[in-house]
């Protein structure tokens, strides 16, 4: 595991947990769009922070892993608070794996930026 992936995963988990805490105090009708929209966006942000250097495929893989880990952990916090059912972790994990890979792939590595 690279330093970028570890720090990105930690940042993403903190952001996902903060999003869950904010969403927890929203009325139920607002939670229906808040959790999936913001959670998926944060998966992309997590991927961006996790990209590190290297080829696009390697960066996307790190972003997917970090985004998925943070997304599932955030979903489990939301489940513990009683906001979403446990099966939501699979949905959140899938969405944040994809958005994490996209976020990481979109970030240019320092080696490419210098060329």
Question: What helical percentage do the residues reach?
Answer: over 70%
Topology, number of strands: 0
Average residue pLDDT: 90
Q: What percent of residues are in strands? A: under 5%
List keywords for this structure.
single chain, mainly alpha
Descriptive overview:
- The chain is an all-alpha fold.
- It has one domain (3-109).
- Helices cover 82% and strands 0% of the residues.
- It contains 5 helices and no strands.
- Helix 1 packs antiparallel against helix 2 (28-50), helix 1 (3-24) packs parallel to helix 3 and helix 3 runs antiparallel to helix 4 (88-106).
- The radius of gyration is 14 Å and the shape is elongated.
Quick overview:
By secondary structure, the protein is mostly helical.
Write the layout of secondary structure elements.
Blueprint: H1 3-24, H2 28-50, H3 56-80, H4 88-106, H5 110-114
